[in-house]
Amino acid sequence: MPDWQDAMTMTPARKLRQLKGSTAILPESIWAWNQTATDYPREKTVAEVFEEVAAAQPEAIAVVCGPRQVTYGELNKRANHLAHRLRRIGVGPETLVGCCVERSVNLIVALVAILKAGGAYVPLDPSYPRERLDFLLRDTASPLMLTQTSLASSVLAGRHLQSILLDAGDHASSPGDDANPVNLGGPTDLAYVMYTSGSTGRPKGVMVENRAVVRLVRNTNFCHFGPDEVFLLFAPVSFDASTLEIWGPLLTGGRLVVMPPQAASLQEVGRVIRENSVTTLWLTAGLFHLMVDERLDDLRPIRQLLAGGDVLSARHVRKVLDNIPDGCLINGYGPTENTTFTCCHSMRVGDRIPDSVPIGRPISNTRVYILDAARQPVLPGEPGELYAAGDGVARGYLNDPQGTAEKFLPDPFSAEPGARMYRTGDLARWRADGVIEFLGRLDNQVKILGHRIEPGEVETVLCSHAGVRQACVITNSDGVDSKRLIAYYVASSTSRATPSDLRDFLTSKVPSYLIPALFVPLASLPLSPNGKVDRAALPSPLFSLDADGISESPKTKLEQALIDVWRRVLCLERVGLDDNFFDLGGDSLLLVAVHSNLQKILQTEIPVVDLFEFTTIRTLARRLGQAAPAGPSFAQIQRQAQRQREAFARRRERRAGGAA
Fold first, then answer.
1. Tell me, which fold does domain 454-537 have in CATH?
2. Where are the chain's structural domains?
3. Which residues fall within 8 angstroms of residue 400, CB to CB, at 6 or more apart?
4. Residue 649: φ, ψ to 5°
5. Other residues' Cβ atoms within 10 Å of the Cβ of residue 30
6. Angle between the N-to-C axes of helices 72-89 and 105-116, in degrees from 0 to 180, rounded to the nearest 10
7. What is the CB neighbour count within 10 angstroms for residue 158?
């Protein structure tokens, strides 16, 4: 990484412009590139905009989930009934309502209803460990949880929390519940609180207001929205890409196709795209690369393909543009703190694609500043830290005034009273044409599977284990698609912790994407001359293998085929029959890659949930050697999702060295 602080101190004379009422000046070219204001419903809430759309086209299809189709009129009516019920319970402006519901029509009804009642939703992932959910509920002080029957026993057990089961049947209604509730909120009231990784070991609750969501999807410049667009909801609702996927269609009259809740194979994603004529799709960078490599033809119906969450591979971008000439590929960049997108770069066939794919220009009603260490603008071509400003900036971090003050700063380049800018920690530079290039991070934050991860959070939790004296967490990468967390640790002299102990410990405390692929014990951590951990001097990781399993040769062609696929996908020389896929550095995205490869080799349908449940060569071969089951009906999908949840629970309970 360049010495950006030194590089940014040399700024020659330049033509400057100062907004009337602002306290700082910008180079004129950068001022011009930030003229992004458009006319959109800035003074309306998400609920008000949705109600206008529903009133204008009540018979249009709003949501599709499997065979179910719900019109805008029906969705509005169902959400009204629930919203009035929430009001009677006490939900109003700024009330934080927990929402632990799988992808379904009920999820969409719940989110719309919470906003209609004036509250803000707090998405809770049912796969999170209990301790994580406990923290989120304490931090938000949520008085109410919306959930579903199949999750109630795990989500509500032992918690003194008022709840509504959305699938528990009809509830008593009152006269007038069909009507839209009287609006009690405004555009600066909270719409949701979404949690991201925190370097202190404490997740950060990002408070996003209604205006920021409306600004993302109405009269904007990065993507076309409207009744002719069909979006796919594929992201977890706890991931901020869902903001685009849900409200993009519902606030503009489009159609929202909800991916069923169970883990999906690439083939299943392609089937849903084709069967529902999906036109606009968001994929994390890793899944984008995998789809391009394995199922490129499934992307041909897409008119607008958005990808991001990490650096895009130029090779994959070129492959898409060469093979899908009628589509538009959009590299989307932005932290949760600026409501999903800050910059976007649109690419079409014939465009020159540099080896480093740009992140583009500020989207509508968004401003971007690239500043030096003294927070002064740098010239095009010079590196600096990227600051995001405009109507997408979040209110701050829930219950964290210090973190808010450090990252959300007064915007000196704006004449609007109270305007703020968010300090991203990303290094970037303007090109001469006003396009922005991403250059890396100014700290150790990383992106894995689209999730923003602070290694410091994992280090803090590890060091809370009695058997750990020191810990350092880094990423190991074999290329753009295979980042993995590696934890190096020094055990305490009194209570030595094993990798198995630490994996189990973390599994009970943090989401699966924060669990390192490998735990490496060291006698001491290498230090630099200034006394800090020398990350570059840490030894290269070697994934431990099951010695007995390796000495035992595969007995069948199926076992050998599975070993070959695992070795190729995991980039390993050897794999034992009883090695656990996840202990070898596997993750959900690599598992999907294995699934895609196996279906091609074996020429048979394999439920992807089987790969979550049977996580060794021996057990998976035994499972696949049985008679292949018929493909699931939609009614069976809920049971498959339950099996997947149980598989994750068993992974939490097992010891790291055991076979699943």
1. GMP Synthetase; Chain A, domain 3 (3.30.300)
2. 454-537, 547-653
3. 202, 204, 205
4. -65, -40
5. 22
6. 60
7. 7
In this structure, the number of other CB atoms found within 10 A of the CB of residue 36 comes to 17
- Residues paired with residue 215 on neighbouring β-strands, in sequence order: none
Listed residue (218, 206, 277) closest to 251, CA to CA: 218
**Residues 498-512: tens digit of each pLDDT:** 888 898 899 888 888
Contact 80, 178 (CB under 8 A): yes
Q: What is the per-residue DSSP string for 394-408?
A: --EETT-HHHHHHHE
- Spatial separation of the C-alpha atoms in residues 499 and 486, rounded to whole Å: 11
Give, in degrees to the nearest 5, the angle at Cα 517 between 592 and 529.
140
Q: Helix (H, G, I), strand (E, B), or coil: what is residue 293? A: helix
pLDDT, residue 102, reads 94
Distance CA 559, CA 576 (A): 10
Paired residues of 519 in beta bridges: 487
- φ and ψ of 195, to 5 deg: -100, 140
How far from 83 is each of 88, 174, 176, 181, 415, CA to CA, in Å? 9, 12, 12, 7, 38
Give the DSSP letter of residue 128.
S
User: Residue 305: what pLDDT?
Assistant: 97
**Residue 367: its pLDDT value, please?**
98
> Cα separation of 205 and 197, whole Å?
9
Q: Which amino acid type is present at position 30?
A: I
Q: Tokens 């998976």 — which residue?
A: 620
What is the assigned CATH class of domain 547-653? mainly alpha
